[in-house]
Amino acid sequence: MRYLRPLSMEDAIGMITNSAGTVAVLAGGSDLLVRMKGGFVEPDLIVDIKAIEGLSEIRETAEGFSIGAAVPCAVLGEHAALRKAWPGVVEAANLIGSKQVQGRCTIAGNLCNASPAADSVPALVAAGAKALVAGPKGNRTVPVEAIPTGPGKTSLAKGEIVREILLEKRPPRAGDAYLRFIPRTEMDIAVVSAGVNLTLDAKGAVTSARVALGAVAPTVVLVEEAAGILVGSRLDDATLEKLAKACSDACRPIDDKRGTIAFRRKVAGVLARRAAAAAYARAGGK
Amino acid sequence: MAGLAVSTTINGDSVEYLCQPDETLLDVLRDRLGLTGAKEGCGTGDCGACSIILDGRLVCSCLVLGAEAEGRRVETIEGMADGDVLHPLQQKFIEHAALQCGICTPGFLIAAKDLLARNPDPTEEEIRFGLAGNLCRCTGYDKIVRAVQDAASVMRAA
Amino acid sequence: MTAGFDPRYVKRDFASIGTRPLRPDGIDKVTGRARYGADFNMAGQLVGRVLRSPHAHARIRSIDTSKAEQLAGVKAVITAADLPDLTDGDAAMYDILDNCMARGKALYDGHAVAAVAAVDARTAKQALKLIAVEYEILPHVTDVDEAMMASAPVINDGVFTDGVEPKPAKPSNVAKRSQFGHGDVDAGFGQAEVIVERSFRTEQTHQGYIEPHACVASVSADGMADLWVCTQGHFVYRQHCAQLLGLEASKLRVTSSEIGGGFGGKTHVWAEPVALALSRKAGRPVKLVMTRDEVFRASGPTSATSIDVRIGARRDGTITAAEATLRYSGGAYSGAWAELGAMTAFACYGLENVRTVGFDVLVNRPKCAAYRAPSAPMAAFAVESVVDELAGRIGMNAVDFRIRNAAREGTRSSYGPVYGPIGIGPTLEAVKMHPQMQAPLKKNQGRGMACGFWFNFGGQTCSDLNIGMDGSVSLAVGTVDVGGSRASLSLVAAEELGIDYSQVRAVVADTSSLGYNDMTDGSRGTFSSSMATISAARNAIRIMRERAAQMWDIPVDEVGWEMGHAVALGEKNGNLGRLSLKEIAAASGKTGGPIAGHSELVADGAGVSFATHICDVEVDPETGATRVLRYAVVQDAGKAVHPTYVEGQYQGGAAQGIGWALNEEYIYGRDGRLQNAGFLDYRIPVCSDLPMIDTQILEIPNPNHPYGVRGVGETSIVPPLAAIANAVSNAVGVRMTHIPMSPPRILAALEAERAG
To answer: Does the complex come out with an ipTM higher than 0.90?
Structure first.
């Protein structure tokens, strides 16, 4: 096993493409080191990307926000402008693990770990976030939902690294929220989760919506039908009930040690409803 | 597997060590440097017993590679007291009997120190959520929360 | 019993007992200096690692260790062949041996099958991969009810149900049937006007100590051996290890490290004989530390249970009959866990007609160990749930109903003995007056209360109290300090000698420095070692009186002892005044040498212990999530030696019970493998899960202890399962019968109720 800490993305990509064995990209390490400890992965090469210039920064640009792949989630919570613009994304990032884990984990890593239960991913999908991917053939930008393809699997080719997560600039009267269900109050993996992102018109009617569910299918589910139900509404009770049902129906969950199919279906609807109400309030809806 | 030479700062002192690429900082602290105050309760970031502060940020040392400490500042429980003068949190943990077996105590103290550095006057709820990454199986947390509250008030008055 | 020692309670005013000084091990524990199991190293030490069965039940056809042995850096590889059977027909010891290293069959996921010692962890890990084990997979059973079925695979064909006449012709998974009770239960139910009958289940839980098992073993060629280990009972570990390894007990010195939690889980050897065997084979010290995954898969959790309870009462609130059938899984070995459940189930009540039957059942899970008042919480959950429901059915307040039926002094307990002065009634009266009972409840909130009982234990105990020449006192005890007992025992020494707490230092002595001590279990640490400390102090005082008599040149019967001083008694000695302990100690070199008091005794008469808890919860009806809003513990301590640590025991037990009630459980897959062997998915309560836990210490002196002390460590985990189940049931309007009441279970119960 080798450990390398490149200073440039070009070097990092070169190290990976030139390596014959298994390579692990190390950002926060909160998933990688656990998998190494359990013997589930024994990389021949660890490429630590934290020393690469620019990867540990959050930049506010004319288009919105760019979050470097090595930025710990705790830093997201300390970034006032980001918190104000994308409270749902930030609260999701700040629910991962403990304070200790948040000091290490990154949303790019959370995305690339490709767990169906990843906390930040439903919020990012709802937010319409994009991933800037660097690779041997140059950079490409894809919607975040294009990265995970199944539990533990991604669409990234060898040598490709997610270098930034991009969030758009917020229009007025927009809000997002993320809720997850866990048995305890902290420290658990989401049993089911929901991210909702809304934009309202001046009268408080929803003009655009994105609803994403976590831990109810092999990858995060973007529920188009739920968005359709919300658009044009002012989130009256009947709309929220329809939303809940649409979300429950969109689930393809499994029974496992964390929850049952019936529980996940039911609670997915409950959380979507509650998250929609929270996002609506944040967008200034009443 | 070649050893990696690492230069770092631990509790204010310059330290150099050799470690393997897959060796965690917790293993380095405990097995190479004799700093056994950080404990391995799980090795997976779920119990907080190995908490340290790395460049001002609270982390589990079991989730950091030893190699990653190169050029950084590490604070451990061994550096918390100023000589024989205990940190107010250490003093209050003893006074309030915030420990029974004591295995989780170093991690709690480090986490509580970080919490109070960020929020000198936390509510009970903020303390409880702030320390949720540290498991204690003996106390039911009651006396830990009280000790942190008391230490916070002493530190604010200082 | 030390000659002349009178353990009976005598009412007195205390100077030290009941105060709250700082613990002597405090600074070490807040600075990281305290040394736990994994914090100790020896020169030339190797790293030990254990290979474990991935199968729930499998015959081991062969183990080929040759490749592992050839790996550079590997110094020893062992299998069961390196631990020959020296148990000489002792079935319990044979089970321990088999559990340490599988002999022929692997009986659960995680069962040790081989072990290596290598120069470092990486090499040891690599060596494990090179060991080839050929398994023949056998049908398995992990569920307690399924294991009792005739169709279940038999785990051990040498097990024929004990306690059944005539002895069964065929082996089964039922290791033992036990029965307790008295009166005519059928006639009692005939007198009942209301009968409630229900079935309950509880899932398997783990003590969840934060420190994994760890030891350093060193066996020398001349048969001398040392073991450093985190344990609740180093003398017991010495006995077991010596017997299993064929060592002479006196040549094996066991030192107990600081212990990072035990709760009953560090009362059995698992890794220690393996570490010693590796050291013996390698000729070097071996350090063996379990991973968290290994702790869950291969140490000793508590039983899963299936319990039926039936209680009948008259409308005036008098229970006329009670019965329970209790089935407890013991892991893959025989145990007596159901027996304890059957004994404790109805112990809180004075019943004319009562019968309990327990079945100890083998399943393909790790060998159960004690967990804080072992077996009592599950029985209390079932019984206290039915008691609550019965009170409701006859329209009586749950507390009043219990007060009416509570056991009292003179009651014949459901498990046999007649009670002396006990605390169940007083705890109930205190709960009735507790302010929490008046706190308003909102929508979706509910309140529950429940009672609990534990026997407590005394046992063999030995202490030494040495008076230094400067008058300071060192106290050597043999009971491991799991939660502050060195402070409590220092208080006891100070009290008895009449000196200040700060003059005493208590240490836990190793097995070569003190006579045999039973382990710290059964809530005995402070109870028994305080008795031995009092006895040792009285012996030291006798010697100091003799020395004073010598110094004064008067007969010893003219010397008394008051407040840390020898006093000359009688008018004729009026001019002699007093000699302080310090003065007597300073002169000891000239008056006969060192001064010490020793004590060896069996601490009989551990007073039984009762508690009543109150719990308020709020349940989210849409998700089934439960939040504990308020919690109060009322328990009899006999006499609280160090009240802060008594409170700590009450709070800690309640918190463990809350975790058990709501979220903690072993989850096995259909393949018989444990799916949640880590703190991520075995969910013990975190800080934000709990409220402050209110405590109230009652003191009903134990007549069999000089200060009235009763054990306090275990009872606090007995009522929570029931108290929380009653609270949740009251909040949601559905009787919850399956622990843990995880959100999916609560939501499913609510949906079933809504569906009618």
So the answer is: yes
